[in-house]
């Protein structure tokens, strides 16, 4: 069975764990989910999720607990990472905020809290590359991507990129873990050839 890790320093950890389990079931995979609060666990993981929360806090904690380099090694080995909301900000190459020490896993620069006050939180049906039907995307004080560099844009909202892929990394400005729809987790972890890599190719 595969081992999934959810970075558990902040954010919707249980919701991501549930979504990973649902997506795995939908793809005929078995998965064991582990929570990551300390270094030493990421190297055992075949796939990783980095939830939202507050990006300056998550940045401080992943670097402080020496998880950051392990996440970089995971991605360098071609293993999938799904980074959501504040996770996208931390995974980016430029958060436009000195308090965020970016992991530079996605060639993209970010504008934090990009969707304005009156739309602090909203849900929108989002067309996403690779999904047939629109995805119910929940945005909560969401960032947007300013400049994509080498990353591929998978979805836009109001013309701005809100889901991107860069090699084994899929990152969203919204919260796919907050809906019963696990297709985005499926896309990030169990469908993309590039993303799947040798670590996931085991007999069913
Ligand atoms: N606004 C948060 C930040 O900039 C992200 C919000 C979220 O993860 N829901 O860090």
TrEMBL record:
Residues that bind L-glutamine: 53-55, 112, 140-141
Reactions that this protein is recorded to catalyse: L-glutamine + H2O = L-glutamate + NH4(+); aldehydo-D-ribose 5-phosphate + D-glyceraldehyde 3-phosphate + L-glutamine = pyridoxal 5'-phosphate + L-glutamate + phosphate + 3 H2O + H(+)
Alphabetical list of InterPro entries matching this protein: Class_I_gatase-like, PdxT/SNO
Record keywords, A-Z: Glutamine amidotransferase, Hydrolase, Lyase, Pyridoxal phosphate, Transferase
Alphabetized GO MF terms: glutaminase activity; pyridoxal 5'-phosphate synthase (glutamine hydrolysing) activity; transferase activity
Domain of life of the source: Archaea
GO CC annotation: cytosol; glutaminase complex
Pfam families xrefs: SNO
Catalytic residues (UniProt): 85, 175, 177
Subunit structure: In the presence of PdxS, forms a dodecamer of heterodimers. Only shows activity in the heterodimer.
Family the entry assigns: Belongs to the glutaminase PdxT/SNO family.
Biological role: Catalyzes the hydrolysis of glutamine to glutamate and ammonia as part of the biosynthesis of pyridoxal 5'-phosphate. The resulting ammonia molecule is channeled to the active site of PdxS.
HAMAP family recorded: PdxT (MF_01615)
UniProt protein name: Pyridoxal 5'-phosphate synthase subunit PdxT
Species of provenance: Natronococcus amylolyticus DSM 10524
Gene (UniProt): pdxT
């Amino acid at each position: 069975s595969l081992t999934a890790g959810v970075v558990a320093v902040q954010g919707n950890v249980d919701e991501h764990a549930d979504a990973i389990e649902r997506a795995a079931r939908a793809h005929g995979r078995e998965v064991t989910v582990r929570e990551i609060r300390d270094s030493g666990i990421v190297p055992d993981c075949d796939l990783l999720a980095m939830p939202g929360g507050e990006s300056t806090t998550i940045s401080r904690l992943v670097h402080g607990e020496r998880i950051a380099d392990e996440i970089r090694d995971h991605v360098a080995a071609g293993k999938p990472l799904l980074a959501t909301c504040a996770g996208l900000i931390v995974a980016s190459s430029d958060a436009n905020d000195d308090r965020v020490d970016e992991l530079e896993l996605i060639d993209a620069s970010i504008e934090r809290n990009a969707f304005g006050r009156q739309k602090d939180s909203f849900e929108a049906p989002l067309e996403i590359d690779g999904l047939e039907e629109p995805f119910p995307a929940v945005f909560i004080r969401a960032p947007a991507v300013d400049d994509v560099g080498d990353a591929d844009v998978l979805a836009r909202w109001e013309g701005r990129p809100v889901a991107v892929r860069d090699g084994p990394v899929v990152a969203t400005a919204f919260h796919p873990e907050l809906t019963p729809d696990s297709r985005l987790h499926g896309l990030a972890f169990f469908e993309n050839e590039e993303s799947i890599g040798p670590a996931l190719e085991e007999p069913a």
